[in-house]
Structure formats: C-alpha cells, structure tokens
# Entry
Amino acid sequence: MYRASKATALFLTGGTAYALLETAWRGHTHWTMFVLGGFLFLILGELNEGLLEWDTPLILQGIIGSAIVTGAELVTGMILNVWLGLGVWDYSGMPFNYKGQICLPFSILWIFVSVAAVVLDDLSLIHISEPTRPLYIS
# Structure
C-alpha cells in the first residue's frame, strides 16, 4: 500500500510539473502531457533510486534522463501527433528535428529538466523515508 501511494504521489507531482512547465512555455498543454510527465517522473525516479549508483554525477543523470525523455517524446509524438493526428506539439520549425517530434534544442533542455526531476525526487524521498542523502544535499 505504501509503495502504491508513494508512486501515485510521485506520478501526480511529475504530471503536474510537466503540464505546468509546458503551459508556462507554450501557454497551453494537453492532458496526455500530464500522463507522460507522470510516467517520466516515475522512470527518472527509478533510474535515480536503483538503476544507477546513488553517487552517479547529477549531470550524467540529467543526460541519461534527457535521452529517456527524448525517446518517450518520440514514441508519444509518433502515436499522438503522426498516427492519431492530434497535433499536441510540432517541432518541425526547430533545428535538428526528426519528423517534428523531437529536436536537439529540447533534448538539451530536457537535461536541465531531468536534473531538476532527480533533485525533486531525492527531496521527496528524504521527506518520506530519510534514505542516505546524495552528496549534493547536505
């Protein structure tokens, strides 16, 4: 029960953050971005908590996170935008884009967003269960 409620809280946090970020950037969002953000926050949290060593440099976690987010954006974009024609986003005007679904400038931005997600995940876990703290949190 605890694990499910923790995952729900983290999903809601990630979904809300992603939707707010997109709304601040573009002025609107789509409900699917809330879902994508929630899942990505859970994935980045798992990466941070178990798939990588706890002392993995934050910038490396950000780069790996960016690759995960970019990959998820490509898959989600191909489904929502290309196959279903929903037009949730379009990066075709951005440099170094692939089919208008992903682009290099946003992949770079996702590094910083991923770092923020890792830190937010760490802070939430410290608040919930007080595990060993990463080096950057004193």
